[in-house]
Design a protein that fits this description.
The structure is a homodimer of 276-residue chains.
Chain A (H helix, E strand, L loop, with lengths): L2 H11 L4 E3 L16 H15 L5 E2 L3 H5 L3 H12 L6 E8 L3 H14 L4 E4 L5 H4 L9 E7 L12 E2 L2 E2 H12 L5 E5 L4 H10 L5 E3 L9 H8 L7 E5 L1 H4 L7 H23 L5
Helix pairs in contact in A: 2-4, 2-11, 8-9, 9-11
């Protein structure tokens, strides 16, 4: 099964576009788990148990695991094994290096850590992307327009009249011979999301920034989905993980994830006709 | 001592601008060390012992260690402890993420792995850079114009008449309040290196691509150094690491590193007047 097929199947089976970002910060855990590497794993286990029927994907950000050193790498690998096999795993790695080095990252992220897909930064151009898209079972989400304030520094610069992020999206469309490239577009930029969805009508788009960062969920569904109301992957990290600071964190996370899934469903029915 | 002071001191004390890229690929090691994580550590130990009086810096590329999983992370950390304390360590990580995540990467790379400096990708803008430049004891090399073929895909795109890489370099000059930002410019682009050095007369410039990738060493020294013939960091990885495929790999690496250091010195005397 290709990465794209797996994503679509997960979205349909669970009627959900929700992705939980496992950006687990050991310093933000409930008291009984705080500041311990094993606490991070236990926290992830409970979050996954509480939300796995509500999501199409999980997206651990590697930075939070690297901050724990070698043990963090093990915890990340153990975390991915806790995720049901029909749910998509996205390694939020934002890697990007010359071709021969990108092959090593592909080995690390697809081989060792067994992610279905990863996020990458394409500033280094095609040969930095190619090693990640050789096998259609694995996919990438290329950073186009990110959710943060710094996205205006370079991504919006005009290149022959068009913003740079649009050039990146157009290149990805051109490079997508195997159908396993997606894009990252922050929910904080609804109008640009519309432009990008028009350029790339059938690509998965990973949309971070709807929770703590204040992105626009309704517009993200309206403009981020394909014509069937699918293929947007709506990520929420902190708003779900830290919904409660107490021992009830997993139930609180489940409540938040349910709320997000249902809100997305209501916007889907507002803007799209259900498939038959 | 700031990162910049440490780099200058290392270059002066060893009369060398050479940086050895520890891109140690377990599959390319001599027979007796091949395909073993411990082999990678032993290889690095021998390479460092054989070259440490000849270099100003070592630059492990994280991809090669991540490809080994959690053990790779330990080997990377052990490798950095083998490097003499007055030689600069550069983690070639090419990281770049939103501010709150970049803080976690800073913890991983400066805290856990204790690098003096790292390479970063600034596509996400200022808030993705800022967490790495808070402490002048640590530095960054921001990717401007990389050595690979894909550098033409986006980095050379014209933004209001100037190539994007130049915009990146100008932003770095503006952001460099603490004097700990450097740039990465491939030796495969000598004319652009000249432009960048003019824009950033006092910044360290990390210059990969002189070995296997065929960059121009003479032009890299001529255009990449500051007015004192310093602050260019000339990286060679494969040409030094794999100078011999046999048991004499460390001696062969020493010969190659010596040759590179001396060639650089002769170009320094061709183009610069020695400091008094």
């Amino acid at each position: 099964m290709t990465f794209r097929e797996k994503l679509i199947a997960a979205q349909r089976q669970r009627h959900s576009l929700v992705c939980v970002g496992l950006d687990t910060d050991s310093q933000r855990l409930p008291d009984h788990l705080r500041d311990s590497a094993d606490g991070v794993l236990e926290f992830n286990r409970k979050i996954i148990e509480a939300t796995q029927d509500l999501v199409c994907a999980y997206k651990p950000n590697l930075a939070f695991y690297e901050a724990l050193g070698a043990r963090g790498w093990d915890i990340l690998r153990e975390t991915t094994t806790l995720i049901p096999p029909d749910v998509v795993t996205i390694g939020d790695a934002k890697r990007g290096d010359i071709g021969s080095t990108a092959e090593q990252y592909a080995k690390a992220l697809f081989g060792n850590l067994r992610f279905d897909a990863i996020t990458i930064n394409a500033y280094l151009g095609y040969d930095s992307v190619e090693p990640f898209i050789r096998d259609p079972e694995h996919g990438v989400f290329v950073l186009a327009l990110t959710s943060n304030p710094g996205s205006r520094d370079f991504q919006r610069m005009k290149v022959v009249g068009k913003p740079l992020y649009e050039k990146v999206a157009r290149s990805c469309v051109k490079w997508n011979a195997k159908g396993n490239i997606g894009l990252v577009v922050g929910a904080t930029h609804p109008n640009d999301l519309k432009t990008i969805r028009t350029l790339a009508p059938a690509m998965p788009i990973l949309i971070p920034g709807v929770g703590t960062q204040g992105g626009d969920l309704r517009a993200s569904i309206r403009f981020g989905c394909d014509k069937h109301g699918e293929l947007a992957v709506i990520n929420s990290s902190r708003a779900i993980l830290y919904a409660s600071a107490g021992r009830d964190f997993a139930e609180a996370a489940r409540r938040e994830a349910t709320k997000l899934r249902d809100q997305i469903r209501s916007y889907q029915s507002e803007f799209f006709t259900p498939r038959r």
